[in-house]
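Sample pair:
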Amino acid sequence: MSATKLWLTAALIGLAYLIGSVPFSFLVARARGVDLRKVGSGNVGSANVWRACGFVPFLIAVTLDMLKGMLSTLAAARWAMLPPGAVMLVGTAAILGHTFPIFLSFKGGKAVATSSGVLLAVYPLLVVLGAITWVAAFLLTRMSSAASLTAVVVELIMGTTLFMIGRLPLPFALFIWCMAAFIIYLHRENIQRLRAGTENRFGKL
C-alpha cells in the first residue's frame, strides 16, 4: 500500500472507532426516559432496548447499530477503495468503538449488530443466513443471547465453507473467525446462565 493509502486507512480507522462509539441503543432508550445501565441486563445494546422500551425502539436501535459498521466499511471499500485487509480493519474499529465506546466509559454492547453491519457491507448473504437463524432460534428459545450465539455459529460455519471453496477472500474469513470468537467471549456470562438454565427469556411480542 502507498503512503497515502496508509494514512487514509489510519484516518478511517480512527473515524470508524468514533462512529462506533456513538451509543445509539443507549440514546434511543434515553429518549424514552430509560437509562439502559439501570434496567434489565444493564447492557447498553439493542436487546436491552427491547426489554426496557419495546420492539419498535429495538428495531430503531439495532438498525442504527448496524449502520455504524456497514457505513464505515463501505466508506473504506467503495470511497477510499482500500484493499480487503484494510477494509476489515476499518470495520473492526467500528465494532471496537461499539463495544468499548469512548462516550460511555468504554462499556458498550456485545458487538452483534455492528458486526452484522460490517459483514453486510462485504458479504450480505451471510447476514441473511444469520438473520434467518437468529429469528428461528429466538422463536424457539425466546432468548436473544441464544439466538445471537446460534447465528454466529452458522455464519462461522458458512464463512469457513465459502473460504475453503474459494468464494471468500482470506481477510473476510479472518474477520468472521475473529468476530465469532469475540462475540462468544462477550457472551461468556450469558453462556454460563444458559448452561445453568437461568438466562432471561422474552415474553410474547
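Residues 3-196 form one domain.
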